Amino acid sequence: MKENEPDIILSIKDVYKSFPGVVALNNVSIEIGRGTVHGIVGENGAGKSTLMKILSGVYTKESGTIIFDEKKIKDITPIQSLHMGLSIIYQEFNLVNSMSVGENIFLGRFKEMDGMRGTHAKAGELLENISSSIDTKQMVSELSVSEKQMVEIAKALSFNSKLIIMDEPSSSLTADELKRLTQLIHQLKEKGISIIYISHKLDEIFDLCDVVTVMRDGNVIDTKPVCEITRSEMIQKMVGRSIENEYPERPHCVGETIMEVRSINTRKLHNISFELKKGEILGLVGLVGAGRTEIVRAIFGADKAKGHQVILNGEPIRIKKPADAKKAGIGLVPEDRKLQGLVLNFPVQTNIIMASLKKPTRFGFINKSAAKEIAKRQVDNLNIKTPSIATQVVSLSGGNQQKCIVGRWLEISPRILILDEPTRGIDVGAKYEIYLLMKKVVENGGSIIMISSELPEVLNMSNRVLTICDGRITGEFNPENTSAHEIMDKAIG
Amino acid sequence: MNMGTKIKKILLEYLVLVFIVILVIVTAIAEPKFMTSANLNNILRQFGPLSFVALGMTFVIIGGYIDLSVVGIMSLVTVVTVSLIDVTGQVVALIAGIVMGAAMGLFNGLLLLAGGANTQAKALFITYGMSMLYGAAALIFTAGGTLHMSWLTTPQTVFAAIGSGNIGFISVSFVVFLVCLIVLHTFLSATHQGMAIRIAGGNKMAGELSGVPVNRSLVLIYMLSGLMAAIGAIVLFSRTTMANPAAGKGYELNAILAVVLGGTSLKGGYGNVLRTVLGVLLVTLMANCLDLLSVTTYYQTVFKGSILVMAIWLDNRNKQQGGE
Q1: Which chain B residues are Cβ-neighbours of A365 within 8 angstroms?
Q2: Domains in chain B: boundaries
Q3: pTM of the model
Q4: The domain made up of B49-317 is a member of CATH 1.20.950
């Protein structure tokens, strides 16, 4: 192995990084060979993005060493990492829309290029090298996603990059565009440039990569040449965490159909139809961006969608705005607690009574003691730990904040409760309490639609699971007799 | 929380009161004319029009927006109402003026809603534009001239009462102000709709996702602002007995200054109308004291500008402390 050593372009060794309450990277070690395409796969939250951000200098590691091109790198800034020859192409590109292609490629380096004429000439050369015919004087805002990607790659090459990291490069490419990207990656590889290819799409990993690293919960599970690993093994490694007693016993209260959703079509969603039974917990599984949140937001009237039908208890209803959904007995605990759920500097009381404001209201006036009673009832009910109901909700822990939002909806005794990432960022104890609340809701005849990026959670709580991929429902499973592996397979598409 | 931070918090909370006390003491010592009944009367009168505009502005700011159109609304209401007196009689003209103000506010609100203006910044520009339109309409209406109420043939007893009448020893306009204050305070603090306005100002998205009528709140706050601007305009021209087509000039900034000095947060959600009264008091006192101390207008503007910047800076700082 000795003679192989100089061929390592990037060596990551025992890198550790934590955020308050979570270990994001737990002594991660990966070696990237010169001129190889190295895939990194893992579920959401596995630590891929954190690792990339450490490499580019956005985050700093707490311990461990990173050696790039035989130089130890430590405390670098994103610009320095670029100049060292390490480029990252993010999913949302780093381009200035209102400037031309050439200007973007040499942003801030016009002088070195001998002015604008030189800039455009050199940019043209770079683009030609990657067989792209984009006009360097065109505005970036006029380019397609695939063209923008080309510009990013040309930009990376302009820094003589030795390693290019691509984060989900295929997420919005058409099949043809993907083919071109594939060709380009092979071309770059031949020039001795290494690529780190991060993707959820396993097919691409097998097509493109030489080596693949599987990450899970901040750990590297395995690194193998792709020819030595099967697709199912890979999925196994991605999802296979041990499930202990983190979940209450799955409720079994499923009854008749309560809601039918027919053909939701939006720009992102394609022909979404499904039904929900009384007392059921229905899990929506898919990757971030697959359209899970968009489905529930369309049903709830939070996003505009047209032509679809929602049939509640056998009667078609029209939900044009969230207030209509509320009237129909549907509640939504949104994905982003702080942005969409809470009025952070308002007291716990207001945050709890927000959805049931009409209840303590007589002739337009809010009865203060009735409002207090509602808040107190939910605080007791849900065991919300707060000094008082007048405390600003921002000072509560994540779990207790989340319980305030759940309590807000329980107060209207919803027939259907939609939970979008209900346990994101809250600790294990609070998670368990949320699960118990879910159980209580269905035992009382309510139904739940649950979205979660944590597969084990969905699999352990749901009576039925729908997999969503690219805005389509790709499968329906009974999680009690299906393996996580099979479900993940459908969700990845 | 220890005693020190508690005191600091209360002081910051009611900074405006501290300012008022300091201002009164300093001026009273430096200029004996300050404490004369003629001057105090003067202050109360200047307090009038601004206080109405600022009450309306409080709602807009608590709702998370801003309204610069009050300038144009005041100007247009002034010239139209005064011109109507001879045509319709004074009572109808009075009612028409108030309704017109509310209608212009309503239009602002609907315009913002239709344009999807979901930020304070967008509202700033749209209402600025509307203010120019309303103001231009006022100028076109009078061909740029000022109408004097003494030219009118119809009796103006109602406006005379509003402008200079007294009930007992209190002026009529102050009574009107007290009524507005009580009604608006109750509306904001005790009603379902008032709560909706506060929630919409605190977090529009969360409010909407909880089925709180945030759109209705948006339209309502602008309508209220237009209505209060109209009342302010009427009180103003009743006192001066002339209809200047640029009557509203400067009222928007003074109103915003009063609201922010009172401690209502520009970020929305937090504040109340009682605080605004203190803010108006400070703004009016400041102008009066600086006049008495013979500070020139230019330096008064320097003073006012600094106070506005400081108030917003303090508002930001408070928010950060509460938010983190």
Answers
A1: 190-192
A2: 49-317
A3: 0.77
A4: no
